[in-house]
Amino acid sequence: FQEPFVADEYIERLAWRTPGGGSRGGEAFDPKRLLEEFVNHIQELQVMDERIQRKVEKLEQQCQKEAKEFAKKVQELQKSNQVAFQHFQELDEHISYVATKVCHLGDQLEGVNTPRQRAVEAQKLMKYFNEFLDGELKSDVFTNSEKIKEAADIIQKLHLIAQELPFDRFSEVKSKIASKYHDLECQLIQEFTSAQRRGEISRMREVAAVLLHFKGYSHCVDVYIKQCQEGAFLRNDVFEDAAILCQRVNKQVGEVFSNPETVLAKLIQNIFEVKLQTYVKDQLEEHRKSDAEQYLKNLYDLYTRTTNLSSKLMEFNLGTDKQTFLSKLIKSIFISYLENYIEVEIGYLKSRSAMILQRYYDSKNHQKRSIGTGGIQDLKERIRQRTNLPLGPSIDTHGETFLSQEVVVNLLQETKQAFERCHRLSDPSDLPKNAFRIFSMLVEFLCTEHIDYALETGLAGIPSSDSKNANLYFLDVVHQANTIFHLFDKQFNDHLMPLISSSPKLSECLQKKKDIIEQMEVKLDMGIDRTLNCMIGQMKHILAAEQKKTDFKPEDENNVLIQYTNACVKVCGYVRKQVEKIRNSMDGKNVDTVLMEFGVRFHRLIYEHLQQYSYSCMGGMLAICDVAEYRKCAKDFKIALVLQLFDTLHALCNLLVVAPDNLKQVCSGEQLANLDKNILHSFVQLRVDYRSARLGRHFS
C-alpha cells in the first residue's frame, strides 16, 4: 500500500520470496510451486479488496449523512440571520425617528436662544456706548490692559455702529470711539511687533486674529514683512539670501496669519521691488554706457539668477496664478533693459568681431585690401568664373593663408555667448528675429570678412600657369577654410537651430547659409582649378628642362642603360608631393574628385609630351620605362580612371618597340582595340623606322 506501486517489481519480490521460484543458493526452479503461490496470493488479494470495498461504502454513507445534517444547520442559520436583519432595520428606523426629533428640538432651542444672545450682546454694547456718551470709561474691559482682546472686539463693533449714527447729534461720541479704536489698533500692532521680536508665535497669531477685523491689519502685515527682512541680507549674494528668507517665512507665516499666501506674496513683491530692483540697477547702470561687454554679461547673469529664484519660489503657495505674478515682478525689474537688449547685443558683437579681425591682421602686419563691389567688380567676377583667368596683378602672400583658427574660435565663442543671451533675454515672439540678426553678424564677419577675404587673397596669390618655381599655397587655404566651415556648421546646428526651428526664420537662415556656401564653393573650385593648372605648368617646366631629345633616340643604341629618365624621376617626385598635399587639404569625396581631375591632366600632359619626340627601338624602351614609372606614380592616386588611362598609355608605348609584323596584332589587343585608329597611328608615326619600314600601310 505504499506509493509508488509498480506491479512488475511487486511480482518479482513475490517470486523471489517463494522457495523454488528463483535461483537462490543453487535451488532448482519449481514452476508448480510458483504457480500455486501466485494462485494463493491472488485469492488473498481478492479477499482484501472485498474488505476495503465494504469499508469505502461505509465511509460514503457516513459522509452523506453528515452532509445532510450540515445543510440543515446552514438553513437554520440563514433563517436566524433574516430575523436579525429585520430587527436591525426596525432599530435603524427608530434611531432615525429619534434623531429627527432631537434636531427639531435643537432648532427650536436655537431659535429661542439666538435672539436672547443678541439681546444680551446689544445690552452690553449699549452699556459701553453710554460710557462713551458720559465721557468716562469705567468698565474693567477698558481699564485692564490684559483684556485688550475683549476691548478690541467691543470697540470694533462700536466703531461700526458709530458710523451709522448722524454726525450732528453724535459727533463727540463718534470722535471718542474713533480715538479709542485708533489707540487699541496701535496697541495691538505694538504688541504684535514685540511678540515677533520675542519669537512668540502663539501671541502673534492671537493678535493677528484680532487685528484681522481692523483697518490697520495691512499695517500689521507690513510690520511683519519689514521685521522679517532685518538682518536677512548681510551676504553678497542677495538672491540666495532672498531664497533662504522666503523659505524661513513660508514655514512661519501659516502659523501666524489666516491668509498666509497673501502675506508671503506681499513679502516676495517687497523683495523684488525694493531689494532686487535696487541691486540690479546698481549692477547694470555702472556699465550701461561705458562697457557693453560687462553690461551684457551682468544683464544675462542677473536675469538668469532672478528667474532661478522665481523657479524656487514657485514651490510656495502664492495664490491661484503664481506664474503670472512672478513673471510680472521680473518684468517690472528688467523691462527697461530688455527693450533695447538686441540693439546693444548687435552693436557689441559688431565692434568686438571687427576688433578680433583687426587685431589678427595687425599681428600679420597686413593692410587689408578692399574687395570692390558694384558693376565693374561683378563683371570681373563673371569673366573670371567663365574664363578662369586671373584679373589684376598676382599678389605674393609669402605662404600666408590669412585664415586663423584662433580668430574663428574667438568669433564663434562670442556668437555662442550672444545666442545664449538672446535665448534667455529675448521675448519669445522676438527670439527667431533676434537670433537671425546675430547669425547675420556671424556670416558678415566670419564668412565674408574673414573666409571670403582669405579666398579672394588666395586667388590673387595663385601664380600664372607658366610661372617657374611657383609656390602654391591655395591648398592650405582650402584645408583651413574646410576646417573653419565645419566649426561654423556645428554652431549653426547646435546653437542657432534650436532658436529658429519652429519659426519662418528657419528657411531664411538655411537659404542664407546655402548662398554663402555656394559662393565659397565657386571660389574654392576656381582656386583649385587654377592651382592644378599651375601644378601642370610646373611639370611642363620640369619636362622642358630635364627631357632631352637624345633620351629617346640615343646615339649609341648598344650602350644604353634601360631605366627611367631624369625628367621622369623629377616629375614623379613632384606629383607624389602634390598628391599628398591634396589628400591633407581636403576630406570626403572632394579628395577623389580633385585627384581625378589632377590625374586626368597629368595623363594629358605626359601623353602630349611623349608625342613631341621620335623614338628608336632603345628609345622606345626608355619611354616604356618612363610610362611604367608614371603608372606606378598614378597608383598613389587610388583612382581607377587615372590608373586605366596610364595603363592604356603604357600599351600605346608598346607600339614604339613592337616588331612591324606584330603591329596589327598588338593594336587589336584588349587595351587598344577600342581606341581610335588615328591615335594608334599617331603613336606609330613617332618611330624612327616609320617611313623605312612602311608602317603606315597597317592603318590604311
UniProtKB/TrEMBL annotation:
It comes from the Eukaryota. GO terms for cellular component: exocyst. One of its GO terms (biological process) is Golgi to plasma membrane transport. Residues 42-80 form a coiled coil. Residues 150-698 form the Exocyst complex component Sec10-like alpha-helical bundle domain. Pfam families: Sec10_HB (PF07393), Sec10_N (PF20667). Residues 31-139 form the Exocyst complex component Sec10 N-terminal domain. Keywords: Coiled coil, Exocytosis, Transport. Belongs to the SEC10 family. This is Exocyst complex component 5.
